[in-house]
Amino acid sequence: MPLDIATPTPGSGAVAPRARLRSDAPQQSLDGQWRFRVSPSLRSAPADWRSAETAGWGTVDVPGHWNLQGYGTPAYSNVQMPFPLDPPYPPDANPIGDHRFEFVASDAVLAHRRRLLRFDGIESAAEVWLNDTLLGTTRGSRLTHEFDVSTVLAQGVNRLAVRVAQFSDATYIENQDMWWLPGVFRSVTLLARPDGGIDDVFVRADYDARTGAGLLDAAVEVDGGGEARIVLPELGVDAPAGSALRLDGIEPWSAERPRLYDVEVRTAAETVRLRVGFRRVEVADAQLLVNGAPIMFRGVNRHEHHPEHGRVFDADVVRGELLLMKRHHINAIRTSHYPPHPDVLDLFDELGFWVILECDLEAHGFDRVGWRGVPSAEPAWRAAYLDRMQRTVHRDKNHASVLLWSLGNESYRGANLEAMARWTKDFDPTRLVHYEGDPASRYVDVHSRMYAPHDEIRELGEEGLRPAPVRATADELHRLSLPVIQCEFAHAMGTGPGGMQEYWDLFEQYPRLAGGFVWEWIEHGILAPDDGTGRRRMLYGGDFGEAVHDGTFVIDGLVDADRRPRPGLVHYAAVIAPVVVTVAADRRRVAVANRYDVLDLAHVALSWERVVDGERVDAGILTLPSCPPRSAVEVELPESARTAHPHAVSDVVTVTATTVADSPWAAPGHEVGAGQDVVRRARRAAAPAQAPASDHGVGPLELDLTTGRVTALGGLALSGPAVGVWRAPTDNDRDYGLEELDLPTMADRWHDAAIDRMVTRLVGIDADGGSVRVRTRTGTPIFDTAIDATATWTALEDGAVRLDIALEPNASWTGEWARLGLDFELPGAPRDVDLVGYGPVPSYPDLRAGARFGWWRIPAAELTVDHVRPQESGSRIDVSEATIRLRDGALRIRSLTTPFALTVSPHSRPALAAAAHDWELPDEDRTFVSIDLAQAGVGTATCGPGVLPRHRLFPRAAAISLTFEHLPL
């Protein structure tokens, strides 16, 4: 019979799911190069695939995805399915990959009567044969399947044949916003199972915070029903399994102090080793508690992705990314939207993460038809849903890091989900159940939201402070008793995400709110073949010719596909920093708030420094008193922090909290919080020079008589200023904010208002003594909206020129602006920029937590962000002065009044807006400088709210005084 890939039932033939155990029983990896052949459809796939000669076949690496190894191409879609919604039937055009592998079983494995063949991941459905004997089929691409091969495995050469369908009935419930990547992509292992060995273990390691005692209870399944012993050498435990052991003086496990105990489960035939953490998770008074104390999820959603290998596990890469998370204060992970590779759970336990472990389930495609026919509500799919949940729970049930089991993602509602929850609660009452898709939260233990706007989150927090309504139903009372999390928020796509600080202020304000998980950790770019330039070119949906795709929506993450931090990660780290430092305006004291859930601040040192006009004038170490978790203290600053000290621009006191000990993720001195007090004054301009002005300029400044624009400054070619209110649309600008779904995207509104192609008319040039005044009107094509500018240029004695400019919009404006700025162009690409202001990371009005005031040098490669799809980036806010170095010299800009936002880019905004990929940007050999007097925020409209009202920019007048100076290199 051909492979059945159109059935709503689970896979067949596998043994009952069980825990992943580290055993001393022999095992043999079958990973390596397998023979491989792909057919375009099941009907065209040869029937003799198990026995045919494979000399003419190709090869693939297992684990691996065949369409990343030259057999077909990847495809990406998010919600929309790549074929008709016709469950359980996949399309006829459905690549079928035949895998063959011949091996000789090791003597160590053959020495045991019982043997298992384990597959840790096959996408999407497979039929498995060994020595021409059908072992069974698989469903659940990210779920382990084990087959009993005791009577099939032979001495000598064994022939393993695995037929894999790219699409199947399973695809309907595995639509998880990622690349479609078929293949045997996780390891294949042959396991010896000793007679009298340990078939399964479920360790419950409870902790009582009131007494400090742990309760160790291990349910052990032994082959033949024999006895097992539990051995915990550190605590002197050696006892029969099956009886609960009370252990005094336990150090509990937490994400901040991930204390693990080495436990052995022994029989005469086998020893299994586990690393056990004692902890208790519960809900009380609508708060999420671990070990009796509230916790806060400072989380991310984590997909498994590598730009060259897809979802194939690499231990070094994964450890590195988890250490990167820890360095940025991330303490929680939602495994979106499936269980990760089993070894990742060991890392979660070891390094310390609160984990929501998600079942391999998402039926989001049915959203496009109003959830009609969604399998969650279809009885025929119930066994498949339960099988997926059982395999999820059993595999990882011994991991302390797992606090919540998640039923899956975006699969609407239905009895099958409720059955999953009921089974999970019955089997494992020590953990909580999560699912966001049912807003009533009837069968879960947390009220989970996704991209809820700030006002809704505030209301959910307020609910926790009010008595329940008198007429509340039982379901309503249950929901009101639950803590609230955002399982997805702050969609990190492109320049953004804005609004994180406002979310976090709410999380900290209301006890019911237990934090959230940014969507998402990593961009899913696929590396393009080398084009000879050596540049790493990332591809997204549609780049492989897919008829159905979701474009760049797969390029969202706090790190890029190579795991390099995006600015959003730096800002998120500052938002969620575990230590909050506030320097009093009088500089007499510092308030230090400990936002750790478990740790006091004994591992933290507090230091301070005072910098005046870029020079450090004093520094020291502060004595930090005892500060328990979730408490605050005040620390005195020395007199020298506030004594009078003359300054031309800025006087800054910075207080920094750093670690004092080594950790797996950071050396001593790792920053965990910081605060500043910044005193600024406008720089005084030099006196006017005795230089006559004319229509052609003044002093070193040259003007174009026909346009009024600058053409040169002291021998430095310079063009501008042009008045601009548009930016190259960001990903967020191109999408619909949840609060404005009935309106066009902001990018479309800007285009419709024609602010992306404004035209300037010279009104007049008037020379008066030592100054020249240029009046212009910059207006939009099609409409009567315009901005009048009056710019007065004056030469100064120090060789600079002064610009006093006033911008006045006329009364016709109705829409919003991206910014209000002055744009200049210079020849040659920028080399670097020195600035006094907030940096070094780019920042915007609603994305600024990680920027700090200082004297920064920004190298050329860091001036803007190399987003896969080009867009506006690179702004630095509240800048007082900047020096831009170029091929022909340097341009120094100083503010004499208010600070400005500075963007320096080698790419023009039209070029950014037109390019589909960063590697398609032309080399313009120019430097584009924007001095913005006002800016709009960036928001998270790609998924979630757009720009908050306080960060929107409506037409307004503005004025600024600046100096410009050419500095020879």
Structural features, described:
The protein has eleven helices and 62 strands. With 969 residues, it is mainly β. It is globular and about 105 Å long. The N and C termini lie far apart (78 Å).
**Count of extended strands:** 62
User: Averaged pLDDT, please?
Assistant: 97
Percentage of helical residues? 10-25%
**What is the percentage of strand-forming residues?**
35-45%
Instruction: Point out poorly predicted stretches.
Output: none
Instruction: Specify the biggest β-sheet.
Output: 9 strands, antiparallel
Structural class: mainly beta
Radius of gyration: 31 Å
The termini sit apart by 78 Å
List the helices and strands and how they pair.
Layout: E1 22-23, E2 27-29, E3 32-39, E4 58-62, E5 75-77, E6 96-104, H1 107-110, E7 114-119, E8 122-123, E9 125-130, E10 133-139, E11 145-148, E12 157-165, E13 174-175, E14 178-180, E15 183-184, E16 188-193, E17 198-208, E18 213-222, E19 229-232, E20 237-240, E21 245-247, E22 261-266, E23 271-276, E24 281-284, E25 287-290, E26 293-294, E27 297-301, H2 315-327, E28 332-334, H3 342-351, E29 354-358, E30 362-363, H4 382-396, E31 402-406, H5 415-427, E32 432-434, E33 447-450, H6 454-463, H7 474-480, E34 484-489, H8 500-509, E35 513-518, E36 526-527, E37 538-539, H9 567-575, E38 579-583, E39 589-594, E40 604-612, E41 615-622, E42 631-636, E43 650-659, E44 671-680, E45 693-694, E46 697-698, E47 701-703, E48 710-713, E49 716-724, H10 746-752, E50 759-768, E51 771-779, E52 786-795, E53 801-809, E54 819-827, E55 832-839, E56 852-859, E57 876-879, E58 881-886, E59 889-895, E60 900-905, H11 909-914, E61 926-935, E62 958-967
Parallel strand pairs: 13-30, 27-28, 27-35, 28-29, 29-31, 31-32, 33-34, 34-35
Antiparallel strand pairs: 1-23, 2-16, 3-4, 3-6, 5-14, 6-12, 7-11, 7-16, 8-15, 9-10, 9-12, 17-18, 18-21, 19-20, 19-22, 22-23, 24-25, 25-26, 36-37, 38-39, 39-42, 40-41, 40-43, 43-44, 45-46, 46-47, 47-48, 48-49, 49-54, 50-51, 51-52, 52-53, 53-62, 54-61, 55-56, 55-58, 57-60, 58-59, 59-62, 60-61
